[in-house]
Write a structure and sequence with these properties.
The protein is mainly alpha-helical. Helices cover 65% and strands 12% of the residues. Helix 2 packs parallel to helix 4 and helix 5 packs antiparallel against helix 6. It starts with a helix and ends in a 5-residue tail after the last helix.
Amino acid sequence: MARFHDILLLIGQLNYTWTNTESLLIYLIAGLARVDKETAIVIFLTLNTTRARIELVERLAKTNKTPPNQRQEILALTQQLARQAKLRNKYSHCIYSFDETGDQASTQLMAIFDSKDTIKYGKIEQINDAEISRINDVIEQLQGVNREIWAVVERYSFPR
């Protein structure tokens, strides 16, 4: 059962790290839109998907009033966040299965894939050592993005 708990703890850490980092988009919205933090929070919470929040930040960064160096820094951060969202989404939208010992774990994706004349659903994937390593890597990358967003907020004096 130790592996069962380790995997659940790791997925929890992934979700915590993701949510904590995604919430920093509030400060990028505030700085780029030139609004106060409270207004940025309302905007952030009104958008109900990560994709929408990232797209907003990217579009604000692409406006003419955003200096080119600032634009490039922010777009690089949102691109990293979008790449890391794929793994986070996988683990947020699946069913977990463990064998009776808690040692063998797998995920079953909760998505339908339509082809011309059939559907497929519930793709099953093992959570093996390589996958655990991949999750740890994404957590570390998210922590790096978190630190970089704070650096941008400080460097450009965005509202806090």
